[in-house]
Amino acid sequence: MKETIDALRESFRRELEQARDSEAAEKLRVAYLGKKGSVTGLLKGLKDVAADQKKAMGQAINQLKKEVEEGIAAQVEKIHAAEEEALVAAAEQYDVSLPTGESEGSYHPITLVQRELEEIFASMGFTIEDYKEIVTDYECFEAVNIPKDHPARDMQDTYYLSNGQLLKTHTSAAQNAILRKYGAPLRAIFPGRCFRNEATDACHENTFFQMEGIMVDKNISIANLIYFMKTMLSQVFQRDINVRLRPGFFPFVEPGFEMDISCLICGGEGCPSCKNSGWLELCPCGMIHPNVLKAGGVDPEEYTGFAFGLGLTRLVMMKYGVKDIRDLNSGNLKALSQFKHE
Ligand code: FA5
């Protein structure tokens, strides 16, 4: 058995060096430590070892197990650091001062990412809805559980028309109409331009894009919400992204969360794009409040659902390394023609 342990140690070291991405590291973990893994097999075989050798063999196998666990953990850390570096390096390639050199037009980066997201969600059974930019007070606020005089309105001041209608402050303004249009069960995303009367800085614009998503069915839970958020991010960035979920208050969800991603402009160290926090608020979400379901004609006793409001413009900043959100509305071709045609 000693020879088997030594041989396994040797083969593990060789294979560990070859494991260059998270998927390969996970395969290696399963091959050695999984239910049918080689180290697990050795531990199971201990029962057949002669009594006087059991203790020594047990120690040797446990030592090997420890080496495998530590080796994989160190390799995964190296892989993540390299992936992070590659993303930050890719983001640094964007340079607003480069000459355009382009004679033909190109899609706006927000259009490129919006289309990519639409494809990802369509492949998961979501329909894609278009909605108005000018909405009523009821659609924007009351239907999503923000009655008149609710303090949450202070966070979303906007531009009002003389007829009392307003420029929508968030894509949640379409929730009521879409719930009414389809009823339950339902899976839909609705990207759209939003407007807020607020001072601009590197990560705030008065005009920006969000993409809302809702899923309503029997027994929908936070687990479903997290699954869809993770799938979306890993497909957009083509790798696992550091995210954190923290409690967040929005009157139209209960419970509500803020989902932040590690800032890809500075690699999490802090910069103006992430207000020096290393994290960027990207996608608030939560379980749809029963009042919102009721207002949309859906019985909250029978159905539950989740909703998220992705900051599409912020996602574009992270994906392409745009340090200042104002570049995206600038109409500056030097900035906007640097993105791939699709
Ligand atoms: C909302 O607008 C909620 N309607 C989102 C929501 C939907 C929550 C469904 C729960 C369920 P918030 O005001 O935090 O939340 O905006 C959502 C995202 O839009 C932010 O995380 C951010 O990425 C983006 N965003 C908000 N304000 C601006 C702005 N001024 N400039 C650029 N992006 C912004």
Provide an overview of this structure.
33% of the residues are buried. Strands 1, 4, 5, 6, 7, 8, 9 and 10 form an 8-stranded mixed β-sheet that branches. A two-stranded antiparallel ribbon has the order 2-3. The chain is globular, with a radius of gyration of 25 Å. The protein contains 11 helices and 10 strands. The model has no long low-confidence stretch (mean pLDDT 90). The protein is of the alpha+beta class and 342 residues long. The chain binds adenosine-5'-[phenylalaninyl-phosphate]. The site of adenosine-5'-[phenylalaninyl-phosphate] has 24 residues, from strand 5, strand 7, strand 9, strand 10 and helix 10.
List keywords for this structure.
342 residues, 10 strands, 17% strand, transferase activity, magnesium ion binding, magnesium, protein biosynthesis
SSE class: alpha+beta
Q: How would you characterize the largest beta sheet? A: 8 strands, mixed
* Distance between the first and last residues' Cα: 57 Å
**Average pLDDT figure:** 90
The Rg value, from CA coordinates, equals 25 Å
| Unreliable sequence segments | none
**Order of SSEs:** HHHHHEEHEHEEHEEEEHEHH
Beta-strand percentage? Answer: 15-25%
Helix content: 40-55%
What is the overall silhouette? globular
Number of strand elements: 10
Write out the distinct hetero groups bound to the structure: adenosine-5'-[phenylalaninyl-phosphate]
Helical segment tally? 11
